[in-house]
TrEMBL record:
InterPro entries according to UniProt: MFS_dom, MFS_sugar_transport-like, MFS_trans_sf
Protein name, as recorded: Major facilitator superfamily (MFS) profile domain-containing protein
Entry-linked PROSITE patterns: MFS
Organism: Periophthalmus magnuspinnatus
SUPFAM superfamilies: MFS general substrate transporter
Lineage, broadest ranks: Eukaryota, Metazoa, Chordata, Craniata, Vertebrata
Membrane-related topology note: Multi-pass membrane protein
Length: 329
């Protein structure tokens, strides 16, 4: 048992304070899961037939002559008879599509994501842009939370994710949507990492283990599972994006009841603030706190050393885990 766990043992592991914070942090990562796969439902070409007003065919004949494709032009030139029948329609082709009855099709679909045959790369590339944002965010979120605190970074990155997801509602082009997705991904990973670290530092004992291995992951998975449900009932894409953004906006007001990490405050020499949080937690758990909690804690008022990610590889005990974990992710 380390120093912090020992002096805060009087709180217990699962009081009212821990229960409320556990729920808040797990719920806060639900928007992370909602946004990750949103591109599947927003930027997608639903399978369709080209609309050929002059040809009145049954469904079976239509499928045989003009197969369902993601590109109208490709479908036409891929069938010889269809090419003869609708040669003039190829020249005058427009975005007049007929959705197949077995294919999901929103009542309102972004005009800019009906990609032609030469633009099919844009669909997977949109996901790549999102995860490039995730990669960029993962580089600096740890350094920011070490410098400014877990709580500020947690809520600021949640705000970034929520804001840029909301702005996707006003997307008028694929380029605009992709840029907004980049910043959504950046905020997503930084928010998730901050929530993970904040809970890991506040909780102790078995609760800490459950939170870091299951709790925060279940919150993220809940977002995964809610996204298809949202997409099934919300067929207009702008309202779907709005539904993805709103849960983050609901979490932001929880700033006033979410504490800073006492461990981080101690590392910064802010002992009084750390004790105030522990005493408030003791009141919530209905236990009596000592008048001085961190009485043997020594504050270094000199110039403390600033650690970086390089120090993980300098330490013999941390070197191997620091190599293995990025590879597993």
């Amino acid at each position: 048992m380390n120093y912090y766990d020992e002096v805060t043992a009087f709180l217990g592991n699962w009081g009212r304070f821990q229960k409320i914070l556990f729920f808040i942090l797990c719920a806060s990562v639900i928007p992370n899961g909602l946004g990750v796969l949103s591109v599947v439902f927003i930027v997608d070409n639903p399978k369709h037939h080209c609309s050929i007003p002059d040809v009145n065919l049954t469904e079976d004949w239509l499928q045989a002559i003009i197969p369902i494709e993601v590109s109208c032009i490709f479908a036409i030139v891929s069938a010889f008879f269809a090419f003869i029948l609708v040669y003039l329609h190829v020249v005058l082709w427009s975005k007049d599509l007929k959705g197949h009855r077995l294919t999901w099709l929103r009542t309102d679909h972004p005009d800019w994501d009906y990609f032609g045959l030469s633009d099919q790369w844009k669909q997977p590339f949109t996901s790549t842009i999102y995860f490039v944002g995730v990669l960029v965010g993962s580089f600096f979120c740890g350094q920011l939370s070490d410098r400014f605190g877990r709580k500020p970074v947690f809520f600021i990155t949640l705000g970034i994710q929520t804001l840029f997801t909301f702005l996707q509602v006003f997307s008028t082009s694929w380029e605009m949507y992709s840029v907004l997705m980049f910043f959504s991904g950046l905020g997503q990973i930084a928010n998730y990492a901050s929530a993970f670290v904040l809970g890991a530092e506040v909780f102790c004992g078995n609760v800490q283990t459950v939170y870091t291995t299951a709790g925060v992951c279940l919150g993220f998975s809940t977002g995964y599972m809610l996204l298809p449900l949202f997409a099934y009932f919300i067929r207009q894409w702008r309202f779907l994006v709005l539904a993805i953004a709103l849960p983050g906006a609901v979490v932001i007001p929880l700033w006033w009841i979410t504490p800073e990490s006492p461990r981080w405050l101690l590392s910064q020499g802010r002992v009084e603030e750390a004790e105030a949080i522990i005493k408030k937690a003791a009141d919530m758990n209905k236990v009596k706190a000592p008048s001085v909690i961190f009485k043997n804690y020594k504050v270094d008022h000199g110039n403390p050393r600033q650690y970086t990610v390089i120090d993980l590889y300098r330490n013999r005990e941390m070197r191997l885990p620091s190599i293995i974990l990025p590879l597993t992710w």
